[in-house]
Amino acid sequence: MNHINRRVFLSGIVGAGIVGALAGCGVSQERGYLGTPAVFAREAARVKSGKVRTYDLTAKLTEIDLGGVIAKTWTYGDSFPGKIIRADIGDRLKVNFSNQLPDPTSVHWHGLAIRNDMDGVPSLTSPEVASNASFNFDFTLPDSGTYWFHPHSGTQLDRGLYAPLIVDDPNEVVTHDQEWIVILDDWSDGIGNNPDEILASLIDGSAMGGMGGMQGMGGMGGLDAGDVTYPMYLINGRPLSDPEVFTSKPGKRIRIRIINAAADTIFNVALSQHTMRITHTDGFPVKSYTTKSLTIGMGERYDVVVTMKAGVFAFVADAVGKSAIARALIRSASGFAPAALFRPDELDTQPVTADLLQAKDHVKLPARKSDRTQDLILRGSMHPYKWSINGRTYSQTRALMVGLDEIATLRISNRSMMSHPIHLHGHTFQLGSAGGNGVRKDTILIPPMGGIYVDFEATNPGKWMIHCHNAYHAEAGMMTRLEYTA
Ligand SMILES: [Cu+2]
Fold it and tell me: Where do the domains of the chain lie, and which CATH numbers do they carry?
């Protein structure tokens, strides 16, 4: 039961229709800020490089150019996606954040097992940052890898507020010549409905199909499709009509760090005429696995290495169940780019999912018997538009509990007809048993009616979110908390 049931994975049904009331996300502690002695003690014990890296980060209103279509949206700084934050393992990262948006916001450092009071979850770990206010983040980076950051406030994730955060390990043996960060997204803000309007339309059923409307009109809506039809799908903020072109040379090995920043879209990705050697997922190394395509859920990351042939090649992200693609190009020699809607044959191969991969030995958790097992039962429906964990939406949720330094098991079972990428804050679990072969991850796609279990080591005290990384499912209730016993 620790492996995703692949047959089930391919049999999603999407329902749509009349939707009812939303059970909103709850606010349990208005002030938050849980800088407890246990949190400070663990921060003090983290391995430190002695270096400090300081960044300024501003959330603001911006106009972006989507292939000649100007969209007003919210971004980090003047670039979209936001500028990379990069540091080494053990560095102390200081981010001076300023909120110039009309609404309160927050910044969550997705995937990083950092001190709890810097995790950026309003009303749980730190105060929401009011409009025209600021907040200074300050934390030690515990692990290397591909991470990213985004708001943890309402549906803001579905605007332009995201950027990569890369943590380097100076001791890593480098086996590539170039690096390319590829961020996938589904897009409507400023050109179709904004995220608040999309959520409202999902709840009241008013927007059916069309730009930023509801996906599917009942019946078979395709495989694992999301809830929303977007007018555009982007790679690095660029639409099909104006793709990013990455320049390389034949024989060069490119490390591609793929991040799915979409709110409602799972992608299958492939590079035309190439295989991809998967080296990491969610920041953690895996035993090399070569594939022609892979599936990436919202919030997940995969690092792959490709060895370039000569020519112009399409890197394509197929929006699963949505009959749409996003793409970028790699140019390693002269030639014409394939047509905008070109779909590589590689996308017709069985895509790799995390259950097929194995952790490298040095990142396996200690092979210890689990101290406690808790269930996460995922349920929901399009009508009414309501998504729950263990029969409760977030405002009514009962936190899962764990004791400090325990090995804890989460048994996740999906009793709905959609895939859900489940994200655990502050920890990286191991798929299957601690010390087994499963990969280390912080976000795992649970297929419709599928189930898995994961083990994690409870070494990061505080209050943490566990939730679906579909922004609309999370807002409609599919979130709970993990808390440490006193
Ligand atoms: Cu979900």
Answer: 6-25+361-484 (2.60.40.420), 37-168 (2.60.40.420), 178-356 (2.60.40.420)
